[in-house]
Write a structure and sequence with these properties.
Blueprint (H helix, E strand, L loop, with lengths): L5 H4 L15 H8 L22 H12 L4 H9 L2 H7 L1 E4 L16 H11 L3 E3 L6 H18 L7 E4 L17 H7 L2 H13 L8 E2 L23 H17 L9 E2 L1 E4 L13 E2 L3 H17 L4 E4 L3 E2 L2 E2 L4 H11 L5 E3 L4 H7 L7 H11 L4 E2 L5 H11 L5 H17 L19 H14 L1 E5 L13 E5 L7 H4 L21 H8 L4 E3 L12 H9 L3 E7 L17 H11 L5 E6 L7 H4 L4 E6 L5 H10 L12 E2 L37 E3 L10 E8 L3 E2 L6 E9 L5 E11 L10 E10 L4 E8 L1 H5 L1 E2 L5 E2 L3 E7 L2 E7 L14 E3 L2
Parallel strand pairs: 1-2, 1-12, 2-3, 3-4, 4-5, 6-8, 7-9, 8-11, 14-15, 14-16, 16-17, 17-18, 22-30
Antiparallel strand pairs: 9-10, 13-18, 19-20, 21-23, 23-26, 24-25, 24-29, 27-28, 29-30, 30-31
Helix pairs in contact: 3-16, 4-16, 5-16, 6-7, 8-17, 9-10, 9-17, 10-11, 13-14, 14-15, 17-23, 19-23, 20-21
Length: 818
């Protein structure tokens, strides 16, 4: 969600955000020339044009839906005025009720808040930045007292906040790795632990509605919110997201409170055609169903109480105006019963940016008709007036308003907000609990991926190291380890991060107490590169750690047109390599930088992602060997800036058969084979794992209710303990719709002692594992051959829909693959 603290951007004397309710026209004009600052959560839209339905035609279905609400909600709806119901559908930003109009200031202006609740019956507020827990309690208590006093029916407000990787808008909390790192762990338990820490450190503070998890797919590495996803695979995103939702919404340790989650950003938001945030995605209905729907469906099936809508478009149709997406797909197909909330100013965006509506009134009608329940307006009450006018004109029915207002009230009722509206201050010792910080560090350890380790350069045993040089923009940075959505929307200046969080440099000094661990700037006071000095210092060291990476960013401010490692960091790397000493390259950042020009001369490469506050410790321990790396890439690491291909591409997408062009061209084919630097699911360890003996319980499945069990033996054939994520892939060899070359269908992570082996199984169910959806979401289960791969092992089997294979059919094979 966009947090347009424009005072952050115009910090050097620029105008401040509006401190009252109405935004001046000059700010509307300013935002027209700052479109990249208005970036939010996005989604996807199918090709079907939204159908306008008269209010009277929709009313019976809407009235039927409201009958499912709790008795409390039905009673409230019966008593509420139209204006009170519309107020429940409205969400305003903290800057319109705090004392300064600046987002970071969590200090309530009671008069502003009282006026908004009394006159517009506002049902929800959001946002803020990291302040001490006690300050949040004071703010929340004062706001809730005003809401209960000024609301005729004593309806509490629900407060929304972007706790993206831990309680990130509370000072002193455990900051976990971002989702892309959790995906690299292939361990859903870590997603659950992240959710638990989030609610333990924030639920008592009046943070009722957490805008997480992001279950978009990380399929476009240019996208600036790539790191907020669990990676490019729908199964990984499904299991991680479901684990997060269940813990967030069902944790009993925060009783009597409960918290609502919000899946983001429905749907297709993460695959913009040009890679820039909040722009158009081109996604077929079939691809939308097969790849983008499953993580949201898993979160909904886990009980998800709200979704946040994609700010962008699919095939040119804004999702906020798409009945096909928000009603036909989300409600009718997927069975979602909760609250659909817009992202930042997205109804206004239909007019200002996407230009599918001539004015805000028409945009408001389009959004509500499509299926929006709550508008994050977030600065003005214009939405309240426009919705009332639309109802009075008969364009929106009273029943439609009851449905959306009722969903908001139902969410409040389900989390116990009517019984327990006030925050509490008697459990604040939970904030900063060392046990939660230890879990965040443990998660970081499992999320780091060792991509290259020539000649066993790593680990660098402390006993063998007398001098270690650590250089690069992330060498002594806490901000770079944590990324965006930490303390504030775009992060904060380096000096504002907790001093008890070790940087990489500090952690390496702890890990190598008897060595000289030193750093030096790679730019001098004049800003020029100090490459000669770097090479000289590197020659004196036993090894060089190159801590590369990015400063924090998110949304439109993180847009890029080139993934290539910045030129100064490439020159820094080559200067270190020129010393002839071993170089260890750490990639620290929210998306994979292209390192093709420097990777060959680097002995070891570690993808660190955004490992959070425990990242410095985790990386230092992996470099020293105290921790055995176990992460595997949850995305395909591109080798070229202009070519990105996900692991589940179809056979035509990432291949070139040069024999088609005549004799002699086949020999040139090799240069096209390595379009990716490292494949999805790859990651090295300091031990080795051997896969053997893949067997199938049968060679044919004869119907949708059949089941086939695959068994493989995995052994730790090395000399030290470790963890191995076992990934099972299936290939549908022939399909009416071109099939992916492979799809992950099952994974589990296990700990192995040195020399230990165990048999692991995967039960293949045809409807779940062999079918794929058509564009309407109906499963297609076709006869044919399938290939199963796990580790080095491969086996084939057939689905025959109740028939036995012909005698001349190819037999299923098992054993090692090439």
């Amino acid at each position: 969600m966009f947090r347009p603290a424009l005072t952050y951007i115009f910090a050097t004397g620029g105008p401040q955000l509006l401190s009252g309710v109405a935004r001046p026209l000059r700010w509307r004009a300013a935002l027209l020339v700052l479109p990249l600052l208005v970036a939010c959560q996005r989604g996807a839209v199918p090709t079907t044009q939204a159908i306008t339905t008269p209010a009277s035609a929709a009313a019976p279905a809407e009235a039927s839906a409201t009958s499912a609400f709790s008795p409390r909600v039905r009673e409230l709806l019966a008593k509420m005025t139209l204006e009170e119901k519309i107020g429940q559908m409205t969400q305003l930003n903290i800057s319109v009720i705090n004392t300064t109009g600046v987002q970071k200031d969590v200090v309530l202006d009671s008069a502003k808040a009282a006026a908004l609740v009394r006159e517009f019956h506002i049902g929800s507020f959001l946002n803020g930045e990291a302040v001490p827990a006690a300050q949040w309690v004071r703010y929340s208590a004062a706001l809730q007292r005003i809401a209960l006093r000024e609301s005729r029916l004593r309806v509490p407000i629900i407060y929304g906040i972007d706790h993206m990787h831990g309680a990130s808008y509370v000072a002193g909390t455990a900051i976990f790795p971002h989702n892309i790192n959790l995906g690299a762990s292939f361990n859903p338990e870590l997603a659950r632990q992240t959710a638990r820490a989030t609610v333990l450190e924030s639920a008592d503070l009046g943070h009722h509605w957490v805008f997480a998890p992001v279950v978009d797919l990380g399929v476009n590495t240019y996208w600036p919110r790539f790191y907020e996803t669990y990676g490019e695979d729908p199964l990984v995103a499904s299991r991680m997201g479901a684990a997060f939702v269940k813990e967030l919404q069902n944790n009993s340790e925060i009783a009597p409170y409960k918290v609502a989650g919000s899946g983001k950003h429905f749907i297709g938001y993460s695959d913009p055609r040009n890679g820039w945030d909040r722009t158009n995605a081109m996604i077929s209905d079939q691809r939308l169903q097969e790849f983008f729907r499953p993580p949201f469906q898993a979160a909904i099936d886990a009980g998800l109480k709200s979704i946040m809508i994609n700010s962008g478009e699919i095939n040119g149709e804004p999702v906020h105006a798409s009945k096909a997406i928000l009603t036909d797909l989300l409600r009718n197909q997927m069975g979602f019963k909760g609250v659909a909330v817009t992202d930042w100013e997205d109804i206004i965006r239909l007019v200002r940016i996407q230009k599918v509506a001539p004015n805000e009134k028409e945009a408001t009608w389009m959004a509500i008709d499509a299926g929006v329940d709550m508008a994050m307006t977030p600065y003005t009450t214009t939405f309240c007036r426009l919705v009332k006018e639309l109802v009075q004109e008969g364009r929106i029915s009273q029943a439609r308003i009851d449905l959306s207002a009722g969903r908001v009230l139902q969410m409040k009722d389900e989390i116990g907000l009517f019984e327990n509206p006030m925050p509490r201050a008697d459990r604040l010792s939970r904030v900063g609990d060392p046990a939660l910080r230890a879990q965040a560090t443990a998660a970081a350890r499992e999320s780091v991926v060792l991509l290259k380790n020539d000649n066993n350069t790593l680990p660098l045993a402390p006993a063998r190291v007398k001098r270690l040089l650590v250089v690069g923009p992330s060498a002594d940075s806490r901000a770079n380890l944590a990324g965006g959505w930490t303390l504030a929307w775009q992060g904060r200046p380096e000096a504002e991060y907790p001093k008890d969080v070790p940087t990489l440099l500090e952690a390496l000094r702890q890990e190598y107490p008897n060595a000289k661990v030193e750093t030096m700037p790679y730019r001098n006071a004049a800003g020029k590169l100090t490459l000669t000095a770097i090479t000289a210092a590197a020659k004196q060291a036993d090894a060089i750690v190159l801590a590369l990476g990015e400063r924090p960013y998110t949304e439109g401010l993180g847009n890029t047109s080139d993934l290539t490692l910045p030129d100064d960091q490439q020159q820094l790397t080559m200067a270190a390599q020129a010393s002839g000493k071993p170089t260890i390259l750490l990639m620290i950042g929210g998306r994979p930088g292209i390192i093709r020009n420097v990777s060959a001369g680097t002995k070891a490469i570690i993808w660190a992602g955004l490992p959070g506050y425990g990242g410095g410790t985790a990386l230092a321990e992996i470099i020293s060997g105290k921790t055995n790396p176990s992460g595997k890439l949850p995305f395909t690491y591109p080798q070229f800036a202009g070519h990105i291909s996900n692991y589940h591409h179809d056979n035509n997408e990432n291949s070139l058969d040069l024999s088609d062009f005549g004799a002699g061209f086949e020999k040139r084919d090799a240069k096209y084979k390595s379009t990716m630097l490292t494949e999805f699911g790859e990651g090295l360890s300091y031990t080795t794992y051997a896969y053997a003996g893949l067997t199938l319980s049968d060679t044919v499945l004869t119907g949708p209710g059949a089941r086939l069990r695959a068994t493989v033996r995995v052994a730790n054939s090395g000399a030290r303990a470790g963890q191995e994520a076992v990934l099972w892939f299936l290939t549908d060899e022939v399909g009416r719709v071109t099939r992916p070359v492979r799809m992950l269908k099952h994974f589990e992570k296990q700990a192995f002692a040195a020399g230990q082996s165990r048999d692991l199984t995967f039960d293949i169910e045809p409807l779940r594992d062999l079918s794929y959806p058509n564009g309407q979401g109906r499963p297609q289960l076709e006869d044919g051959w399938y290939t199963l791969r796990v580790g080095t092992q491969m086996a084939r089997f057939r689905y025959a829909a109740g028939k036995t294979p012909a005698s001349n059919s190819r037999p299923a094979a098992s054993g090692a693959s090439n």
